Amino acid sequence: MSKLPVMEIFGPTIQGEGMVIGQKTMFVRTAGCDYSCAWCDSAFTWDGTGKDSITQMEPEQIWDELKRLGGNGFSFVTISGGNPALLKNLDGLIKILKQNDIKVCLETQGSKWQDWFFQIDELTISPKPPSSGMLTNFEILDTILDNLKARTMNQNVSLKVVVFNDEDYLYAKKVHKRYPDIPIFLQVGNEDSRTTDDQVLISRLLDKYQWLIDKAMLDDDLQNIKVLPQLHTYVWGNKRGV
Amino acid sequence: MSKLPVMEIFGPTIQGEGMVIGQKTMFVRTAGCDYSCAWCDSAFTWDGTGKDSITQMEPEQIWDELKRLGGNGFSFVTISGGNPALLKNLDGLIKILKQNDIKVCLETQGSKWQDWFFQIDELTISPKPPSSGMLTNFEILDTILDNLKARTMNQNVSLKVVVFNDEDYLYAKKVHKRYPDIPIFLQVGNEDSRTTDDQVLISRLLDKYQWLIDKAMLDDDLQNIKVLPQLHTYVWGNKRGV
Ligand code: SF4
Ligand code: SF4
Q: What residues does S-adenosyl-L-methionine bind to (chains A, B) (predicted)?
């Protein structure tokens, strides 16, 4: 018995951000985070407001639920949180997914290493910039990215930094400079993860996206980068579970 | 002397679509196309309206112009058209780019093979669906994708199909079924590549994007796909040269 705290399971939908943007995927969101970012868009996974939705599930149960929702229509599962890297026993779920030929995508802020990182097909490390209120432990981050040098050609690793302001932008540059060989994604921050006025939200997000593009395009320190929005907010606004 | 017909050179900007969406890149747009798609958004490259902008340029001149515009701020160049695969002598430009450690991205509809395809880092083959009014020669497409099986691990190849309607969608499925091992991108068609009302444009494009997502998510034949918009139209509307 090795249960996992599951917050929600949904899909199929598209991955709205990062290295596999646009990918058809199922989502498993785990509960719990060691951070408390000021602008966390999934604070319900750790701030107590969602605690009634947490279910302790065996990997087999999670797989059953994925099949019930997604049938035979998917080959990709994204594990998100919270911080799924808190869960040492996540390897049970990863194993079942692999046995069923499912590609696995996972995102974590890089505050903790797990040996099962090597089994993730598309691994995003997303250290949090100053606006989050969190402080990056670069020694741990160094260890994680150093360990990952032993990965196989089949595993993709990327960095992703959310940028809300100039200070965050400088932080993103610092991260890129420290790990120049890891593909890096700059992502526009969503300053208002609560509004339900989608029109206003999109127009603000697009302004912010253009601001970030303009900065990065003029910046010789950022030669090889990708700048992306969160596509799902364009399509579904701030709605959850899509 | 091996000059190339160049329509425009611009950047740095982001790649708005496909396999390297979000990538900081320079663009070189070549003139001429063997197709005449009904909804071509760069018809000025082949319909005569842009003929005064075509400059015959040596690869060295193109490189000089790229450096003049992009300085030391880029490491990625996208060659688009028209159909750049019409130009046998494009290898001269590719060679200079490679010598300068530039990654090269290129898109072609797949109507013609060139040996220099092997030198493209990120190659997109985008066969045109029925709404284009064009007819795909699947024998040629077979040959191209068969040849590309000899590519190295460093070269990425993808298929991209623009979808305007149900018939196009069925065509995309057919393409995916024929080449199941090649990553495929479905891209929302822009039905109005002339309007200057960006608000209306974005709202229409988002509706269409959601329509395409909804179809693909429910479709068991499309397990492993990516569904993407053209990000640049969200940010810049139908403006050219950005
Ligand atoms: S690390 Fe992620 S889940 Fe945790 S608080 Fe920050 S944004 Fe939220
Ligand atoms: S193949 Fe491309 S450039 Fe040529 S007509 Fe069609 S859309 Fe336009």
A: 39-41, 82, 126-128
Domain of B81 in residue numbering reads as 4-236
Minimal CA–CA distance to A76: which of B217, B186, B230?
B217
Domain assignment present for residue A241? The answer is no
Q: Are strands A226-228 and B4-14 parallel, antiparallel or unpaired?
A: unpaired
This complex has an ipTM of 0.94
Strands (E), A15-171: 24-30, 55-57, 76-80, 103-108, 122-125, 156-163
**Confidence check: pLDDT of A194 > 80:** no
B227, containing H or E segment: strand B226-228
Burial class (CB in 10 A: 0-12, 13-18, 19+), A231: buried
CB spacing of B13 vs A75 below 8 angstroms: no
- Selecting from B13, B76, B213 the residue whose C-beta is nearest the C-beta of A224 gives B76
Nearest to B81 by CA among B141, B131, B124: B124
Average pLDDT, chain A: 95
Residue A237's region, left for phi above 0, alpha for psi from -120 to 50, else beta, is left
- Determine the pLDDT at residue B1: 60
Q: For chain A, how many structural domains are there in total?
A: 1
B114: in domain:
yes
Is residue B242 situated within a structural domain?
Answer: no
Listed residue (B197, B31, A227, B49) closest to B205, CA to CA: B197
Residues B95-121: b if buried by 16+ CB within 10 A, e if exposed: ebbeeeebbbbbbbbbbbbbebbebbb
CB count within 10 Å of CB B12 equals: 26
**Nearest ligand (C-alpha, residue B86):** 2
Q: What is the CATH number of the domain that holds A160?
A: 3.20.20.70
- Provide, as residue numbers in chain A, all residues whose Cβ is less than 8 Å from the Cβ of B202: 202, 206
Tens of pLDDT along A5-16? 999 999 999 999
Span B111-135, pLDDT tens digits: 999 999 999 999 999 999 999 999 9
**Ligand 2 atom at minimum distance from B82 CA:** 3
Q: What is the per-residue pLDDT across B62-107, written as a single tens digit (0 to 9) for each?
A: 999 999 999 999 999 999 999 999 999 999 999 999 999 999 999 9
What pTM did the predictor assign? Answer: 0.95
A199 contacts on B by Cβ (under 8 Å): 203
